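Renewal narrative, Specific Aim 1. Our central claim is that a sequence can be written position by position from structural information alone. The example that follows is taken directly from our test logs and has not been curated for this report. It begins with the structure tokens describing the chain, in the order in which they were read.
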């Protein structure tokens, strides 16, 4: 099954350089799309009533709406440019979506995530302040400009020195030459577009196991399916090796949350522990921040492998989160999926897969312990049995 999924996904997953190119060509249009969809969602769900936090969390989730309402297409050679356009109807409502947009759904999702990750703080502040004061067009016009948002201008070649009369003549010839080239390019692009395969051909070629129609949902729910077999093996191995580190981190988070919420009842502690290994609690109406819904406290840590063994360490104060380090398109997406999967698996093993070890009960009976004492008492007893693994508090 994994091999079939990989075979179906591979043709659709654009190379990283293509994703960077698509983002570069469509930054302005993508900005317009994100602002428009954010404006709609904020009004639809009254997201401003509880302050800016709800709007901040909606920024990355808005990409699902962008994928549903916009199409990304790539013009064939020699033009080689990407276009982002509003769909006539939602993707769910289209009986026969355009084959080109069908092929680039995952690329659109990834470049949208890259853009919203880059601009999350700015978009959150902007939409919180302006949504109820201005319409989408006004916000787009004011925000979607400048070097950060607009595509960078192409480098200009310095013209050779010549007389003023020859300059004028050369400019005229250059203008006519460019016009002719543009005309030829448009005609060639039109011919290439006319050769685009039908939806039936696309389905025969790509949808051999029915996974394409559910590609985005599958990635959101089970991102590990996007990994190579060797990477999945690393995830399984790493999750086992990280149990001690993850246990200490998770118990520290649980202690902090219990103290902040003044939770002393065992039932309350049980509810707290039940959501310790996920980012968005089960039953929540919010979209998970990351595929697979890993615990968000994992953002504060980094994983490394030395001498064949995985370990987890807290990031230094002021260090950039690994999830925020890809503003130039350099994020290794699979590496982040592996990180999130290892932490999630290890956490669930510690918290949920050992009925004889009840963290909530242990917290209740050791309510006077500090975070360090709680982590040491619970984790050293069950998951950090090797004294050589003992470390300072995470």
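The sequence written for that structure reads:
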């Amino acid at each position: 099954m994994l091999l079939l999924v990989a075979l179906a996904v591979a043709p659709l997953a654009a190379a990283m350089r293509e994703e960077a190119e698509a983002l570069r060509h469509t930054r302005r249009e993508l900005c317009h799309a994100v602002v428009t969809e954010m404006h709609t969602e904020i009004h639809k769900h009254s997201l401003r009533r509880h302050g800016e936090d709800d709007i901040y969390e909606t920024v990355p989730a808005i990409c699902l709406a962008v994928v549903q309402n916009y199409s990304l297409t790539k013009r064939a050679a020699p033009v080689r440019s990407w276009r982002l356009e509003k769909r006539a109807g939602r993707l769910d409502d289209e009986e026969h979506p355009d084959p080109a947009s069908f092929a680039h759904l995952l690329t659109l999702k990834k470049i949208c995530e890259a853009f919203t990750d880059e601009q999350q703080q700015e978009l959150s502040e902007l939409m919180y302040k302006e949504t109820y004061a201005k319409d989408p067009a006004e916000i787009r016009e004011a925000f979607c400009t400048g070097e950060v948002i607009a595509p960078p201008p192409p480098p200009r070649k310095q013209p050779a020195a010549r007389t003023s009369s020859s300059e004028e003549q050369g400019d005229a010839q250059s203008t006519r030459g460019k016009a002719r080239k543009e005309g030829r390019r448009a005609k060639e692009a039109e011919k290439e577009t006319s050769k685009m395969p039908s939806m039936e051909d696309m389905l025969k070629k790509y949808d051999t196991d029915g996974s394409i129609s559910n590609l985005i949902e599958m990635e959101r729910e089970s991102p590990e399916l996007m990994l190579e077999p060797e990477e999945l093996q690393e995830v399984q191995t790493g999750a086992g090796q990280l149990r001690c580190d993850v246990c200490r981190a998770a118990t520290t988070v649980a202690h902090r949350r219990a103290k902040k919420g003044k939770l002393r009842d065992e039932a309350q502690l049980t509810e707290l522990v039940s959501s310790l290994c996920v980012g968005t609690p089960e039953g929540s109406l919010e979209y998970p921040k990351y595929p697979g819904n890993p615990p968000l406290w994992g953002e504060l840590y980094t994983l490394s492998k030395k001498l064949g063994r995985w370990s987890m360490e807290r990031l230094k104060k002021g260090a950039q989160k690994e999830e925020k380090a890809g503003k130039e398109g350099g994020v290794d997406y699979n590496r982040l999926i592996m990180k999130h999967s290892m932490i999630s698996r290890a956490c669930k093993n510690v918290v949920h897969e050992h009925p004889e070890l009840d963290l909530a009960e242990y917290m209740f009976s050791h309510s006077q312990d500090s975070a360090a004492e709680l982590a040491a008492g619970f984790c050293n007893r069950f998951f950090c049995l090797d004294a050589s693994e003992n470390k300072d508090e995470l």
